[in-house]
Design the sequence.
């Protein structure tokens, strides 16, 4: 894809937006790596939008390299999700692909507080390891909402979900 224009799979359709997002589930010591963008009052898993013509696992590897400045081992697909939600007055139809990832041992780990702080595409990104307990993930407003209750024990086989938030 080098040299070709980058086209993110995120576009307006009528009164809504279609979005194709890929995210990584990085776990250590009962904690999951989360990302806060700018001053958002919610967090998400690291990842981003898939580009046109890009396989989802390659998109996740690219996003991790861009955001975390490291190479992750992209593991198995855990969830495919058709998620319907509103954000900032916009109606979203999002296809989400969630993979288990393993970060290198050299990636910072702190059980409390920000472990990695960077900028990507003009946004400040702060990463933090948070307990996978649903109450802890609710306190930090992990998005999408359905994810918080599913990180403590990941399924043995990929699951397909349809969620209306």
Sequence:
């Amino acid at each position: 894809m080098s040299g070709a224009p980058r086209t993110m799979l995120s576009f307006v359709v009528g009164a809504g937006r279609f979005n194709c997002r890929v995210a990584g589930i990085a776990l250590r010591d009962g904690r999951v790596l989360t990302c806060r963008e700018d001053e958002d009052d919610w967090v998400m898993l690291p990842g981003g939008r898939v580009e046109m013509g890009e396989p989802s696992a390659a998109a996740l590897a690219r996003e991790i390299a861009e955001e975390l400045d490291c190479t992750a081992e992209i593991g198995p697909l855990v969830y495919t999700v058709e998620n319907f939600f509103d954000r900032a007055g916009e109606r979203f139809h999002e296809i989400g692909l969630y993979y288990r990832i393993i970060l290198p041992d050299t990636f910072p780990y702190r059980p409390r507080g920000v472990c990695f702080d960077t900028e990507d595409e003009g946004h400040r990104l702060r990463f933090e390891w948070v307990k996978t307990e649903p109450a802890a993930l609710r306190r930090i407003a992990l998005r999408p909402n359905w994810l918080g209750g599913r990180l403590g024990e990941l399924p043995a086989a990929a699951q397909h979900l349809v969620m209306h938030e």
Notes: The chain has one domain: 10-164. The mean pLDDT is 95. The first strand starts at residue 10 and ends at 13. The chain is about 10% helix and 45% strand.
